[in-house]
Every structure is written in C-alpha cells, then in structure tokens.
Amino acid sequence: MTALLTMSSISGGYGDADILHDLSMEVGAREIVAIIGPNGAGKSTAMKSIFGLLTIRSGTIVVDGTDITGWAPSRIVRSGICYVPQVANVFYDMTVHENFEMGAFLRNGDYSDALERVYEMFPDMKAKQKALAGSLSGGQRQMVAIGRALMLDPKVLLLDEPTAGLSPKYMEQIFQTCRDIRNTGVALVLVEQHAKQALRFADRGYVLAAGRNRCDGTGVDLLNNRFIAEMFLGA
Amino acid sequence: MDISSFINFFLIPGIILGSIYALGAIGVTLVYAIMRHGHFAHGDLATFGAFMVLLFSASSGLSPYAALPIAAVAAGLMAIAIDWLFYTHLRTLPKIITTISSLGVALMLRAVVQIFWGVNTLSYETGIARPENWFGLRIKPHEVVTVVMVIGLVVALEIFLRHSKWGKAMRAMSDNPDLASLCGIDNRKVIALTWMLVGALCAASGFFLGLNTQVKSLMGWNILLPTFAAAILGGVGRIEGAILGGLIVGICEEMSVLVIRSEYKVLSGFVILLLALLIRPTGLFRGKVL
Ligand SMILES: Nc1ncnc2c1ncn2[C@@H]1O[C@H](COP(=O)(O)OP(=O)(O)OP(=O)(O)O)[C@@H](O)[C@H]1O
Ligand SMILES: [Mg+2]
Asked: Which residue lies with its CA nearest to atom 3 of ligand 1?
C-alpha cells in the first residue's frame, strides 16, 4: 500500500512541553481510518499537528509524496488535504452558502460543480443556504463544516469528532456521509468518541493514549481485542 | 429657536462632523475585527492622510478632491509599513501590547507631520465656499460633497465585504482566523488588505475634516476620542453601528454648545463614551466582528 498521508514519529506540542510523543500513522487511498482514545489523549492535537497548527519538534508529515512538515496551514490545504476541527469549525457570522464559498477560496474559476455535489450530499442545506451558520443546530453545523472541507476536492479528509453531541440518527447520517465521501475516492481520518461504532465502520483504527501510539490494526481486530475492549470500549 | 436655525446651526454641522467620525469609527472597527487590538494611531493616520492630500495637490496642481485617491493609497501603504515595522512581531503577544504601541506610533506620525509641515494651521485651496440657500437651508458645497462621498465610501465598503472574494475572506478571518487559514486564506494578506482599507478611510476622514475645518498637525488627535466613542457606542465590529455612533456623537457635540461653552464641546464625546461603557458596553448594535 502506498500511503497518501504518513505521519512519522511526530513529537510536538503547543508550547514548551510536548503533547505528542513519537506518534506515527498512515492512511492509504480510499481508506477510512478511525482514531480513538480517552479524552486528552492527544487525538485533536495529532490532527492539528498535521495541519501546521502547532509546533512540531521532530518527525515528518508527508501527503501524497510531498513533505509538508512546518508549512503554514494556508499552504497545506493546497496539498490536497482538508480538515474539519472539533470545535469552531464553521464561520458563525456567515451564511451556509458563504461557508461553502470560503471552502472553495483557493479555487480559481467556476466551482459550481463542487457546490452542487455538496448540496446533493446535504439536501437540507439547500433550503438553509441563506441562514447564518451560527443559527444552525449542532448536526447541521457538522454538515456545513464537512461540506466546506469538501469544496476543494481533497484527497484526504480529516474529521475531528464529527458526531460529538449528535443523536444516534444524526450520527448514522454522518457515518453514511463518510461512506459516500469515501466512495468518491477520498480517504478519511475520523477521530471518534463513539469508539465501538467507529471501529465497526472504519477499515483500520489507531488507539492513542497520552500522546503515544497505543496500538493499531483493522477495525475488527481492535474490536475483538480484549485489552482494548476493557481499556477503551467500556466492555 | 426655530426649526430652520436648528437644522442650519446644529443638525447640518452635526451630520458633517458625524460622517467624519463615522469614517474613523469604521476604520477602528475594521482594525479590531481583523487584528483584535485597539488603534490609537488612528487619528494621526488621518492627519497624515490630510497632509498627503495637501502634498499631492500642491505638488501636482491637482484639486484636493483629485489628490484624495492618491493620498488614500499613500496612507494605506503607510499603515501597511507601520504594521510591518511595529506590530507584526507583537502579533502573538497579548493584544494590549499592540494597542499601547499604537499610541507610540501615533506620536511618531504626528512628529513626522510636524517636521515637514510645522505646527501652523493650513487649509485646502478649493475656491469659494459660500453657502447655497436651498429652501432656507444653508449648505456649503463641500458639505454636500462630504456627505455624498462618505455615503459612497460606506456603500462601496459594504459591497466589497458582502460580495467580493477578498471581502468575504476578511469577514471569514474576523470570524475565525484558524478556520480561515484552513480554507487557504493567507492571514497576512488579509491583514495587509485591512491596513490598506483602514489607511484609505483615515485619509478620507482626515481630508473631510480638513475640508470642513482646517488642516493642522493636531487635527487627527483631536478626533480620536469622539471616533472611539462612536465605534464603542455603535458596537465595535459593526459597520452600521459605527455610522450611527458617528452621527450621534457628531450631532450631540454640535448641540452641546446649547448647554456648555463651545471650547468644551469635545467633552460630549467623552460623556457619550462613559455612558456607553456604563450602560451598554456592547454598543447599540451588539458588538461582534464584521
Ligand atoms: N490549545 C492548547 N494549548 C495547550 N494545551 C492544549 C491545547 N489544546 C489541548 N491541549 C492539551 O493537549 C492534550 C491533548 O488534548 P487533545 O485536545 O488533543 O485531546 P483529545 O484526545 O482530542 O481529547 P478529546 O477527546 O477531549 O477531544 C491535553 O492535555 C490538553 O490539555
Ligand atoms: Mg479532541
């Protein structure tokens, strides 16, 4: 497997103290990878480190053959990777439509095809396109956030807890959206609090604890692993 | 006092002054919306712009009106240069540090103006400015120009922010700078663009102030307080608030001479600022960012 996204031995953090220690992971083309771990394990920090939002002290991040370590976020998006943060992932004071337009900021020329695809994926948003994103419900905001990130046609999409705080119905809808996105040829990295559901649905998973790799494997393997089940799945 | 003298002596001058404050307050609001700090150099940047109009019109023989666009660009470039020299390396520190350093920049700008033009009172050469009598309303031609151009500038700015790609990028960055950079928006470019707009607005407010009063090195410093009062009264971050705030402060200031001596009329800006902070610190329109 040639990896689309490779994180090799990343150490780094927000200030002097490292939060991530020697963290590595790999995402192949059209793969859904789940990242699970207890609160504060460094899952979000790992996502931010890929996107240049914190200081990486050592290690490298390679996207599709390009070493992007140390690049500014506004440059990293050009390498074909998009990211939906865990919190504050929409522009609250802008309309749904403007959020999508901002997602397409780097596209020159006509992007109506991308807009159309996003509205097709989230038909509810079509009726809401003039509404301010800040006025939407949590689930609707996740749709805007994911739609925004899809506007650049990324090869890899990072989603940090897209189902946090959502009802089971919305959660299932988001998972279904993830499958649809994968079927268009995009690889997904999914940080999930709902570890069991996520592992059931992902191809592979990584378990993080205290900023380190704890273990990894296929979703099924991790689900069947006694140790993991006891530690993280509340079984 | 009958209605026409109220309009002629208080309302019209108040609207003129208020439009000038409004332009300044919009700039203050833009700085806050994008960079999140206060900007004490705002008044002196307006002074700089006013003197640039003087420089360009005197050196080229253009009318001051024609020199304004050039002066606006010059003031915008000056603002970008100031940002690059004095504010960029403070960006990650607490914003109060940048705010205070802008006070230092204000003093420097004024010193530069005084070195070149001295401390005398000057004025623009715009020919005669006799009031026209329109149905009993005495309005000077440059007052009409001031109001029309201020309205034009505000409408243009609003269209830019609502409909253009980079205007939306400014709103996006004002809303959430990290997310904006995740969309590929280069925050540094947005900051430079913001300073260009702020510098141009300062030049316009300085020019209109000079047009309706005089051109002198303290002119901008003198409108700093009412400008801030207008921005805070309207709700920082709100352009429509800055306009309303500017008009209220301007009209109140002109009307204050009914109760206090005219030397003290700038006090009214101070009183409005105090009242706004005490009663409704979020401003008339709830403050937000762009
Ligand atoms: N902006 C920040 N500045 C400093 N430290 C931070 C910051 N954000 C997170 N941390 C620290 O980094 C560690 C990992 O946090 P992170 O948000 O990555 O965890 P997480 O696995 O995403 O947790 P959760 O499941 O709660 O989202 C925590 O100890 C946290 O205190
Ligand atoms: Mg997290």
From this structure: A14
Reduced to 3 states (helix: H, G, I; strand: E, B; else coil), residue A157 is strand
Over residues B226-283, the pLDDT tens digits come to 999 999 999 888 889 999 999 999 999 999 988 888 888 888 889 999 998 898 888 8
* Cα(B218) to centroid(ligand 1), Å: 50
Residue A3 Cα, gap to closest chain B Cα (Å): 22
Tens-digit pLDDT profile for residues B194-212: 999 999 999 999 999 999 9
Q: Which residue's CA is minimally distant from atom 19 of ligand 1?
A: A40
Domain ranges of chain A: 1-80+155-235, 87-153
**Residues 6+ away with beta carbon under 8 Å from A52:** A68, A70, A71, A72, A73, A75, A76
Average pLDDT over residues B180-193: 96
Q: Is A90 on the interface with B (CB under 8 A)?
A: yes
Instruction: Label residue A214 exposed, middle or buried (CB < 10 Å: 0-12, 13-18, 19+).
Output: middle
Model pTM? 0.92
Yes or no: say if A34 and A206 are a contact pair by the CB < 8 Å rule.
Answer: yes
Q: Which ligand is nearest to the CA of A193?
A: 1
Closest C-alpha residue for ligand 1 atom 28? A40
Specify whether the CB–CB gap between B141 and B129 falls below 8 A: yes
What is the best residue among A18, A43, A84, A192 to mutate for testing ligand 1's pocket, by most ligand atoms within 8 Å of CB? Answer: A43
Among A79, A102, A159, the residue to mutate for chain B (most B Cβ within 10 A): A102
List, in sequence order, every beta strand (DSSP E) within chain A: 3-13, 20-28, 32-36, 55-63, 66-67, 81-84, 156-160, 187-191, 204-209, 212-218
pLDDT (mean) for A6-14: 94
Flag if B184 and A51 touch (Cβ within 8 Å).
Answer: no
The pair of three-digit structure tokens given for residue A85, joined into one six-digit string: 């943060």
Å from CA of B169 to ligand 2 middle: 27
Q: Tell me how close the Cα of B185 comes to any Cα of chain A, in angstroms.
A: 6
What pLDDT digit, counting tens, does each position of A39-77 carry?
Answer: 999 999 999 999 999 999 999 999 999 999 999 999 999
Contact residues, chain A, for B171 at CB < 8 Å: 91, 93-94, 98
> What atom in ligand 1 is closest to the CA of residue A15?
4
ipTM entry: 0.91
Q: A90-94, A187-191, B42-46, B282-286 — which is least confidently predicted?
A: B282-286
Of A222-226, B176-180, B184-188, the poorest mean pLDDT is in A222-226
Give the class (CATH, top level) of A1-80+155-235: alpha beta
Query: B68-97, pLDDT tens digit by residue?
Result: 999 999 999 999 999 999 999 999 899 999
Which residue minimizes the CA distance to atom 30 of ligand 1?
A40
Sheet with strand A156-160: strands edge to edge: A81-84, A156-160, A187-191, A32-36, A204-209, A212-218
